[in-house]
Amino acid sequence: MRIGELARRTGVNQRLLRYYEEQGLLRPVRRPSGYREYGDADVEQVRRIRTLLAAGLNTTTIADVLPCTADTGNGLAAACPDLLTDLRRERDRISRSIAELHTARTMLDAIIEATSH
């Protein structure tokens, strides 16, 4: 299938699909004409990429994590034992960001409250 069909089947626009290719997350076959050719496995690969992005991972981390994921039918699971260490590190990074954002919101609420009086 060509990139337009992959975009239609995954709901991801063509520009993002090209970006995923630039990041090494997708590796379509190139036809002599230069057109990209995707297979059914690429549809699943894009779904995995989107799941990992939604989990807060950046594309650099996804490039490392993606080969070690397996679809369990209920979601993605780590297929390589070493992957859990990386995933826990990313979870801790996200938790720190959440705490920082919570602190910032609390401070902003205090400023808004003080201004309202």
From TrEMBL:
It comes from the Bacteria. It holds the Pfam family MerR_1. SUPFAM superfamilies: Putative DNA-binding domain (SSF46955). Residues 1-68 form the HTH merR-type domain. The lineage of its organism: Bacteria, Bacillati, Actinomycetota, Actinomycetes, Micromonosporales. PANTHER family: MERR-FAMILY TRANSCRIPTIONAL REGULATOR, REDOX-CYCLING DRUG-SENSING TRANSCRIPTIONAL ACTIVATOR SOXR. This is Transcriptional regulator. Gene3D superfamilies: 1.10.1660.10. Transmembrane segments: none annotated. Keywords: DNA-binding, Repressor, Transcription, Transcription regulation. PROSITE patterns: HTH_MERR_1, HTH_MERR_2.
